[in-house]
Structure to design on (387 residues):
């Protein structure tokens, strides 16, 4: 019986997919797997028996990835499950920035007691006039699941779309409209585009990528949209750009004291993935990932360990080994089985940066003695008997 703890409410459409091999527990210390959305795990003591964490969403800044990796705890996310919800809000953000719909609505609310409001509106509406997005240039920085959907939708709306992603995947390339102009230098987007939307992960290399230097390269009156992470932009520099007129609007899905209520900022309370459909999709994907891992050892969409899939084990046993990505470990692993006369029928080894993951199928059940021998090998974090 596998025990699952939910640190946040998880959609029932996902939870109901757990088989009778699983039990939801309120005690995180006895959990084999954790399902989480926004709850922070950084101050949490990682349970000794924990095997996996599945984030029902894309961002994992609330999870201590390195700490989990060193303990052999696989962390999953659900890329693409909320992509459509975010895409639709990005499009709404562009329209809100292009036309002062919010200002117009506020005027109507303030004029609710005016018996001649319809007549007054005809005089006032010129103050809220804007522009159309058709024919404008949109730059999409980051062509992952969300970026591709935004780019394709913008093409359908008649925009001239430029896309930048030095790590464009084959799958993303297949899904990207042929009308999107793929540029090789992000400066080309800064120089050409009327609207710029960011869809990259928050890394040391991307933190603060929108700053005074990049803003200086942009067109006068550019509209910036940030539905990825607020720290991708140096928002103090963005406010200076708004004040000077270099930036016409800054649309962000991340409220904070820097931008909330500031002139030129349209700040949304982190609603990108807050749709029933997105939450359902994320829950279903997170449950599928954690079940496949717990039952078969397969890793899909992990953010701290490499992808690895050996299907369902049809042999007597399967062992998963979490270890450092250093030479000569595979030889020691196979020797541990060989010295006990256990034949290896299949094996795979995958690495990701400084960590690696090895799965071994054997024709006889692995003994406690073999597992202890594997655990003693220098560089091994954890050994798990999957079957």
């Amino acid at each position: 019986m596998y025990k699952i703890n939910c640190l946040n409410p998880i959609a029932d459409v996902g939870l109901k997919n757990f088989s009778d091999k699983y039990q939801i527990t309120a005690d995180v210390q006895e959990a084999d797997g954790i399902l989480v959305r926004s709850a922070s795990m950084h101050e949490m003591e990682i349970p000794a028996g924990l095997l996996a964490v599945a984030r029902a969403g894309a961002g994992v800044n609330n999870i201590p990835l390195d700490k989990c990796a060193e303990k052999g705890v696989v962390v999953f996310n659900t890329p693409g499950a909320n992509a459509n919800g975010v895409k639709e809000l990005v499009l709404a953000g562009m329209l809100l920035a292009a036309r002062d719909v919010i200002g117009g609505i506020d005027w109507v609310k303030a004029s609710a007691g005016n018996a001649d409001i319809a007549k007054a509106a005809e005089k006032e509406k010129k103050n809220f006039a804007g522009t159309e997005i058709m024919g404008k240039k949109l730059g999409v920085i980051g062509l992952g699941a969300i970026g591709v959907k935004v780019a394709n939708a913008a093409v359908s709306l008649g925009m001239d779309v430029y896309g930048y992603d030095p790590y464009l995947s084959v799958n993303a390339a297949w899904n990207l409209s042929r009308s999107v102009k793929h540029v090789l230098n992000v400066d080309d987007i800064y120089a050409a585009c009327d609207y710029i939307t960011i869809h990259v992960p928050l890394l040391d290399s991307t933190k603060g990528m929108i700053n005074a230097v990049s803003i200086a390269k942009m067109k006068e009156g550019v509209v910036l949209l940030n539905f990825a992470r607020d720290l991708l932009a140096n928002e103090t520099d963005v406010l200076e750009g708004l004040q000077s007129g270099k930036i016409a609007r800054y649309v962000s899905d991340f409220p904070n004291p820097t931008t909330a209520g500031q002139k030129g900022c349209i700040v949304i309370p982190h609603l990108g993935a807050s749709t029933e459909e997105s939450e359902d999709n994320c829950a279903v994907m997170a449950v599928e990932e954690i079940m496949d891992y717990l039952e078969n050892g397969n890793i899909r969409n992990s953010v701290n360990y490499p992808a690895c899939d050996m299907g369902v084990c049809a042999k007597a046993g399967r062992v998963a080994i979490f270890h450092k990505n250093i030479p000569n470990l595979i030889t020691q692993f196979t020797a541990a089985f060989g010295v006990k006369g256990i034949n290896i029928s299949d094996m795979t080894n995958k690495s990701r940066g400084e960590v690696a993951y090895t799965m071994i199928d054997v024709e006889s059940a692995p003994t406690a003695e073999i597992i202890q021998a594997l655990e003693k090998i220098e560089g091994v974090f954890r050994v798990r008997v999957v079957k």
